[in-house]
Amino acid sequence: xxxxxxxxxxxxxxxxxxxxxxxxxxADALLTLRTAAAVAGLSETTIYRKEKTDPxxxxxxxxxxxxxxxxxxxxxxxxxxQAGA
Length: 85
What we know:
Order of helices and strands: HEHHEEH
Structural class: alpha+beta
Radius of gyration: 14 Å
Distance between the termini: 49 Å
Shape: globular
Largest sheet: 3 strands, antiparallel
């Protein structure tokens, strides 16, 4: 059995980079799910679940088999609506 590696180690292996959180302030920016999860205070799994079950949640943009993004402006608008509700 192979030893389990942390997600950070797996990302370094793949060459993945982390988006800075200030990118979320740019309305047209496409956020990774990890960044969106950090901004919204949700897990990546919850983001996928909300997309399927909550009609007010912003649609995810699938750019490939392993590449999913969400517009920063849509996410911040949804968060503002949730805070006001």
